[in-house]
Amino acid sequence: MANRYAETLIMNWDDLRYFLAVAREGQMLGAARRLGVSQARLSRHIASLEQAVGTRLFNRTTRGCTLTSDGEILISTAERMEAETQSAAQDLQKREEVSGTIRIGAPDGFGSAFLAPRLGRFRTAYPDLRIQLVPAPRSFSLSEREADLAIMVGRPTKGRLRVRKLVDYSLSLYAAKSYLERAGKPNDISNLMGHTLIGYVDDLIYTPELNYVGDVIKDWRRDIEVSTAIGQFEAVRAGAGIGILHDFMADGLPDLERLFCGATVKRSYWMVWHENQGVTRRVQAVADLIDAFVREDRQKFNH
């Protein structure tokens, strides 16, 4: 009987809907009223289904209808199909609701190295959504709509904001193997002062959270200053000197070497949006999607 069901159920969902109504109401009249159809029409659908599966599904008495043993087998399959159909309809409705334009502001390292390669997956999940990604070394004013959703380094404490912690991340000292071959490998952190060091442009650091060189060595002297995390990453990778890079960007690259594994800086990314955006479906959907992407690769962020 199971094989006969597999061959016929997809084509007879309407019949199954009537079958479920009778099974739940326990009588033809009550099921017809529930569906808003005539009892004759309901009977025709039940007869059509019984003919399709080749067996009787209900025992009919003056007191109502009870499932036969074959009917008991069918109902679990029918209820599963009903649940899957409802779930699919809800998913389609959600996709339709997530439309319009959303602007995501993010630090340039996270925005360019992590979010940008995943923008295609945003489109796959929400094809009606227009995405603007702004990866920049700056703060974003959510009240002035510079971004609908922002990724920030450190938790903001001011403003009418909704805040969700995204992930802790680590940064470590790196140098290109070409640089170490040329300049030698420091055997102690104190020896760093004899090397070319790369860091942020001091007066352009837009949040105290990024002024982390003192966490590694107190007297860090920047010989090369670059205002973006991506710029520092490219300078270090090209062999210009030693820098503090995001582990999720640098770790595992064959041309870079991580130095002094104990000298690690810890920071956190937070997702933030204005409280007026709290009920906007597209903001909630994108925040959930970013959170899911980070969970997939959480091990990359912390060393």
UniProtKB/TrEMBL annotation:
Signal peptide extent: none
Annotated HTH lysR-type domain residues: 11-68
Ranges that cross the membrane: none
Any one biological process term the GO annotation gives: DNA-templated transcription
GO molecular function terms listed in the Swiss-Prot or TrEMBL record: DNA-binding transcription factor activity; sequence-specific DNA binding
Key words of the record: DNA-binding, Transcription, Transcription regulation
Family: Belongs to the LysR transcriptional regulatory family.
Identification of the protein by name: Glycine cleavage system transcriptional activator
Source species: Flavimaricola marinus
Gene field: gcvA_1
